[in-house]
């Protein structure tokens, strides 16, 4: 199996500049050790909305970009011998990426590591940033306007959110009404990341042919990884991410595709977030390469 990387250079889902540059920066970083195929999809040259009262900021432009991204993702993921890593961009690029995996594999689970719930709707969003509707769109909870190019979302019964915090009342209600399983940062601190990960994979693996993984840098507390557009405090440190990646790599046979999103280099401090991001991607790439050499990986978790 070969690894291909798709650079999704877009930050239309959030009204803060920088996430678009994150993808480009990380691609430049990994070129030193990754010799596989790298494709780039650049955001259209538009002026983002600055109307803070608009609950649907950049919706048309984002949908236009994600339609093109979805088509490119389907094309790349249709090759059974290719593992696709998508590097964003803000969280909204994972809508197109996750749904493309669903289109190709049909029966797919979702594990989304994020500090935000990403489960708002156009009615409940407080700031109008479409990135906050991302997981709701992927799993089919309202927000059908954001997936008009794909009819069959990933079921909430096979989807898990890990690491969210600072939830508004409306977000809690959306999560409860949808029935999606989620583990907060506090749950991880109380139960331990190994137990939470075991539960997450158990849910996402139910009658599926693969799991789509998304890792948002907002998962990590900004004390350790400040380079995010909307920091969520009281999160996890980078040692938890190391454990997560160790477990993910042990489950690499079950993973269909992987997204990395929400790195904003304009907000980094001494490039410390960038180094964490590169390490995460290097672990995933190495795990896929190792699988290609030895076949099925024996689990330790």
Secondary-structure map with pairings?
Elements lengths: L1 E8 L9 H12 L6 E6 L16 H19 L4 E7 L4 H13 L3 E5 L20 H6 L19 E6 L4 H10 L2 E4 H7 L1 H12 L6 E6 L21 H13 L4 E7 L10 H23 L7
Parallel strand pairs: 1-2, 1-3, 3-8, 4-5, 4-7, 5-6, 7-8
Helix pairs in contact: 1-9, 2-3, 6-7, 8-9
Give the distance, in angstroms, between the N- and C-terminal Cα atoms. 23 Å
Low-confidence segments: none
Query: What's the CATH superfamily, by name?
Result: Ureohydrolase domain
Mean pLDDT: 93
CATH architecture descriptor text: 3-Layer(aba) Sandwich
Class of secondary structure makeup? alpha/beta
CATH classification class: Alpha Beta
What's the domain count? 1
The portion of residues assigned to helices is: 25-40%
Shape descriptor reads globular
What is the N-to-C order of secondary-structure elements (H for helix, E for strand)? EHEHEHEHEHEHHEHEH
| Count of runs of 4 or more consecutive helical residues | 9
CATH topology: Arginase, Chain A
Describe the structure.
- The chain has one domain: Ureohydrolase domain (Arginase, Chain A), CATH 3.40.800.
- It is built from 9 helices and 8 strands.
- The protein has helices spanning 19-30, 59-77, 93-105, 134-139, 169-178, 185-191, 193-204, 238-250, 272-294; strands at residues 2-9, 37-42, 82-88, 109-113, 159-164, 181-184, 211-216, 255-261.
- It has an 8-stranded parallel sheet with strand order 2-1-3-8-7-4-5-6, sandwiched between helices.
- The mean pLDDT is 93.
């Amino acid at each position: 199996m070969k690894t291909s990387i798709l650079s999704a250079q877009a930050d239309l889902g959030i009204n803060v500049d920088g996430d678009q540059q994150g993808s480009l920066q990380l691609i430049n970083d990994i070129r030193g050790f990754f010799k596989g195929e790298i494709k780039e999809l650049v955001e259209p040259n538009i002026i983002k909305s600055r109307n803070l009262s608009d609950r649907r900021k950049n919706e048309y432009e984002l949908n236009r970009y994600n339609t093109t991204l979805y088509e490119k993702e389907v094309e790349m993921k249709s090759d059974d011998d290719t593992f696709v890593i998508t590097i964003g961009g803000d969280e909204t690029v994972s809508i197109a990426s996750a749904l493309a995996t669903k289109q190709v594999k049909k029966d797919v689970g979702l594990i989304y590591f994020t500090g935000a719930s990403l489960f708002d709707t156009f009615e409940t969003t407080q700031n109008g940033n479409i990135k906050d509707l991302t997981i709701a769109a992927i799993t089919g909870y309202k927000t059908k306007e954001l997936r008009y190019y794909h009819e069959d979302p990933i079921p909430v019964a096979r989807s898990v959110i890990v690491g969210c915090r600072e939830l508004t009342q409306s977000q809690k209600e959306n999560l409860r009404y949808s029935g999606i399983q989620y583990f907060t940062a506090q749950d991880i601190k109380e139960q331990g990341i190994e137990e939470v990960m075991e539960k997450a994979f158990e849910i996402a693996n139910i009658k599926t042919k693969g799991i789509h993984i998304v890792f948002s840098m907002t998962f990590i507390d900004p004390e350790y990884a400040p380079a995010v557009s909307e920091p969520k405090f009281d999160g996890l440190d980078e040692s938890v991410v190391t454990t997560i990646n160790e477990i993910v790599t042990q489950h690499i046979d079950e993973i269909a595709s992987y997204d990395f999103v929400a790195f904003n280099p304009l907000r980094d401090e001494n490039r410390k977030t960038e180094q964490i991001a590169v390490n995460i991607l290097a672990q995933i790439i190495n795990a896929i390469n190792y699988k290609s050499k030895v076949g099925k990986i024996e689990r330790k978790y």
